[in-house]
């Protein structure tokens, strides 16, 4: 192997933990009462609307507005009539989300092992370029990453073959010399394997850690 590509959200970065903290903290500020059902619905809506951004049907900011339009009625909160007002409202959630950005404990050790083994390190993530780079900086991993490829920078999302091939190209490696690690079996394992990459499933629920897969 000459390089390893990591997914970001729920692989290196604890998106679910950060988002759960954020929505639980934000709902009372909107006049609602936090419940497990409302938290679950936030993620259901996120998955549904975010998929439109990944398909490049709407912008990253557009998916934020779409999520609010679906979620606010669940709180009996009025939906602001303009995009500008929706954007302003969403900053409340973002404040809590950003304040809780956290790397998994095994993230930096895994990247350091990869670096010590002489591997170039890439991150391939279905997200916005600005936010995903900001996450890497905030959680203290940016200095160990050589290449970051995102939906916005590539103009296409995983599992499109171009995402993996162009990330390999950016790293200066061939697929056969590159491995990928991520939490999503389809996007981070099966799709890259079909292109010749070696890929490993980070199944945290089964007790697998990043250091298990890198060392």
Word description of this protein:
There is one protein chain. With 215 residues, the chain is α/β, with parallel strands linked by helices. It folds into two domains: 125 residues, HAD superfamily/HAD-like (Rossmann fold, 3-Layer(aba) Sandwich); 85 residues. 52% of the residues lie in helices and 11% in strands. The protein is built from ten helices and five strands. Strand 4, helix 9 and strand 5 form a beta-alpha-beta unit. Helix 2 packs antiparallel against helix 3 and helix 3 packs across helix 4. The longest helix is centred in the N-terminal third of the chain and has 19 residues. The radius of gyration is 18 Å and the shape is globular. The two termini are 12 Å apart.
> N- to C-terminal separation?
12 Å
Mean pLDDT: 96
Specify the CATH architecture of the largest domain: 3-Layer(aba) Sandwich
Summarize the biggest pleated sheet.
5 strands, parallel
Q: Number of helical segments?
A: 10
Shape: globular
> What's the helix-strand series?
EHHHHHEHEHHEHEH
CATH class of the largest domain: Alpha Beta
Instruction: Please give the share of residues in helix.
Output: 40-55%
Please indicate the percent range of residues in DSSP E strands (runs of 2 or more): 5-15%
By DSSP, the count of extended strands is 5
- Write down the Rg: 18 Å
Strand order of the largest sheet: 3-2-1-4-5
CATH superfamily of the largest domain: HAD superfamily/HAD-like
- Stretches where pLDDT is under 50 for at least 5 consecutive residues are none
How many domains make up the coordinates?
Answer: 2
User: Would you tell me which CATH topology of the largest domain applies?
Assistant: Rossmann fold
Given helix and strand content, the structural type is: alpha/beta
GO molecular function: hydrolase activity
Protein name: HAD family hydrolase
Keywords: Hydrolase, Magnesium
GO biological process, one term: small molecule metabolic process
């Amino acid at each position: 192997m000459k390089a390893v590509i990591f997914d970001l959200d729920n692989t290196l970065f604890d998106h679910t933990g950060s988002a759960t903290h954020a929505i639980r903290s934000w709902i009372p500020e909107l006049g609602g009462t936090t419940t497990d059902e409302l938290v679950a619905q936030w993620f259901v809506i996120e998955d549904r609307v975010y998929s439109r951004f990944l398909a490049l049907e709407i912008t990253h900011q557009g998916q934020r507005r779409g999520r609010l339009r679906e979620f606010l009625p669940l709180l009996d909160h009025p939906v602001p009539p303009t995009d500008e007002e929706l954007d302003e409202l969403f900053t409340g959630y973002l404040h809590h989300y950003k304040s809780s950005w956290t790397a998994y404990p095994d993230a930096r050790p895994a990247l350091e092992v990869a670096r010590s083994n002489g591997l170039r390190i890439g991150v391939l993530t279905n997200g916005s370029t600005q936010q995903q780079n900001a996450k890497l900086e905030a959680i203290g991993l940016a200095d160990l990453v050589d290449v970051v490829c995102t939906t916005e920078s590539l103009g296409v999302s995983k599992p499109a073959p171009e995402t993996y091939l162009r990330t390999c190209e950016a790293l200066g490696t061939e697929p056969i010399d590159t491995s990928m690690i991520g939490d999503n079996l389809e996007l981070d394992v099966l799709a890259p394997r079909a292109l010749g990459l070696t890929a490993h499933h980070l199944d945290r629920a089964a007790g697998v850690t990043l250091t298990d897969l890198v060392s």
